[in-house]
Write a structure and sequence with these properties.
- This protein has about 120 residues and is α+β, with helices and mostly antiparallel strands.
- It has a single domain, classed as Beta-lactamase Inhibitory Protein, Chain:B, domain 1 (2-Layer Sandwich), CATH 3.30.1450.
- Helix content is about 30%, strand content about 30%.
- Strands 1, 2, 3, 4, 5 and 6 form a six-stranded antiparallel beta sheet that branches.
- Strand 4 and strand 5 form a beta hairpin.
Length: about 120
Amino acid sequence: MKKQLIKAIFVGLTLLLLNNCAFKPYRFAIQQGNTISEEKVAQLQPGMNEDQVRFIMGTPLLQDVFHNQRWDYVYYLKPRHGDIERKHLAVFFVNGKVDHVIHDQSPTHAMKQNA
């Protein structure tokens, strides 16, 4: 009788552990693109040259061949759990100098994850 009870408890605990593993798989946090912080954006000023922008923001993620006077910086973070974070910054140049910058008005744009 004791052996059957111990065996039943062992099988029950094993099934419980396997059941928990099936419902909560490990997910990696996925981070892509350039880090866009308010501190970096505040440093960008009209009249800066391309090297100065590259020093502050890094190499742009997107440089369109047809619009080479525009650099796009994109940041994407999909955490293990929670909301997806996306940021975008576009720097426009005229004659190799910063003309204007367009960026997300809020620090983060979060979207609900389909999990």
